[in-house]
From TrEMBL:
<dbReference type="InterPro" id="IPR006475">
    <property type="entry name" value="Citrate_lyase_beta_bac"/>
</dbReference>
<keyword id="KW-0456">Lyase</keyword>
<keyword id="KW-0732">Signal</keyword>
<feature type="domain" description="HpcH/HpaI aldolase/citrate lyase">
    <location>
        <begin position="1"/>
        <end position="202"/>
    </location>
</feature>
<comment type="function">
    <text>Represents a citryl-ACP lyase.</text>
</comment>
<keyword id="KW-0460">Magnesium</keyword>
<dbReference type="InterPro" id="IPR005000">
    <property type="entry name" value="Aldolase/citrate-lyase_domain"/>
</dbReference>
<comment type="subunit">
    <text>Oligomer with a subunit composition of (alpha,beta,gamma)6.</text>
</comment>
<dbReference type="GO" id="GO:0008816">
    <property type="term" value="F:citryl-CoA lyase activity"/>
</dbReference>
<protein>
    <recommendedName>
        <fullName>Citrate lyase subunit beta</fullName>
        <ecNumber>4.1.3.34</ecNumber>
        <ecNumber>4.1.3.6</ecNumber>
    </recommendedName>
</protein>
<keyword id="KW-0963">Cytoplasm</keyword>
<keyword id="KW-0479">Metal-binding</keyword>
<comment type="similarity">
    <text>Belongs to the HpcH/HpaI aldolase family. Citrate lyase beta subunit subfamily.</text>
</comment>
<dbReference type="InterPro" id="IPR011206">
    <property type="entry name" value="Citrate_lyase_beta/mcl1/mcl2"/>
</dbReference>
<dbReference type="GO" id="GO:0008815">
    <property type="term" value="F:citrate (pro-3S)-lyase activity"/>
</dbReference>
<dbReference type="InterPro" id="IPR015813">
    <property type="entry name" value="Pyrv/PenolPyrv_kinase-like_dom"/>
</dbReference>
<dbReference type="InterPro" id="IPR040442">
    <property type="entry name" value="Pyrv_kinase-like_dom_sf"/>
</dbReference>
Amino acid sequence: FIYRPDSIMFDLEDAVSLREKDTARILVFHALSHPMYRDIETVVRINPLSTPFGLKDLEAVVRAGADVVRLPKTDTPDDIFELEAHIERIEKACGREVGSTKVMAAIESAIGVINAVAIARCSPRLIGIALAAFDYVMDMQTERGDGTELFYARCAVLHAARAAGIDAFDVVYSDINDEAGFLREVELIRKMGFNGKSLINPRQIELLHNAYAPTQEDVDYAHRVIAAAEEGERNGLGVISLNGKMIDGPIINHAQVVLERASASGIRR
Ligand SMILES: CC(C)(COP(=O)(O)OP(=O)(O)OC[C@H]1O[C@@H](n2cnc3c(N)ncnc32)[C@H](O)[C@@H]1OP(=O)(O)O)[C@@H](O)C(=O)NCCC(=O)NCCSC(=O)C[C@@](O)(CC(=O)O)C(=O)O
Ligand SMILES: [Mg+2]
């Protein structure tokens, strides 16, 4: 809470050893029930349903009121259909509103990337898809490097999310001491159009938020665009010029997005 994350993700999958799976599930169940988490979006990464832990995790986290379930290693829409059917049954059993538990699919394999469009469009519960690099590069018989190894997967996941009208989240950056490397990666994915990134350490939160917040220059320009557009409308003009640059519908929409982001960042207005 001190670091003001956009949401908090509890992990029951790969950050938890096999011996600790039951303990971790109980801890997360109790944490979710605590009033402290009422005002922040909570996400839980459960174990895949094909493991002995997945369904137990799901029973616990839906009942405890998690906002979003992150399904790791999503390879096909069938993985989501199976998850959805269980979620609906649990929601009905515990009196939670049907449809209130949202889902995020993590894509971590070649087949997942190939199926990204079908996965992204397969359920109204999906709020976003996330690329998970470490399992993906293993599947691709390569390793994490400067991003070349993720080039196709990032493009595919991002296009799938946009075609489905949901969010796209980039991979975790594992070297928490390499601030410059983290910021280089953030700059790339911000320019590509990702909505954000899965983070593993509190030190990465402010760096990401600052990189995503529009600059004061962007905000000032957006205000000028909106003012020029309003004047153009008063004069009945469809296309107008601002210092020799064409201003039309998409440019005005972009200016509005910049102002919304600035206000959401709480940094600039
Ligand atoms: C990396 C490190 C060990 C470094 O530890 P260090 O101790 O050196 O960190 P410090 O900065 O010194 O900690 C300063 C203070 O912050 C506290 N603190 C640290 N981390 C915190 C945190 N995450 N949440 C809240 N609090 C935290 C800490 O307790 C301390 O508190 P205090 O003592 O009170 O001062 C640690 O961060 C960590 O374990 N991270 C989570 C790792 C994780 O989530 N892995 C699973 C997801 S990835 C995956 O599975 C791959 C994937 O599946 C990905 C996909 O699906 O996307 C794929 O395939 O690619
Ligand atoms: Mg993984």
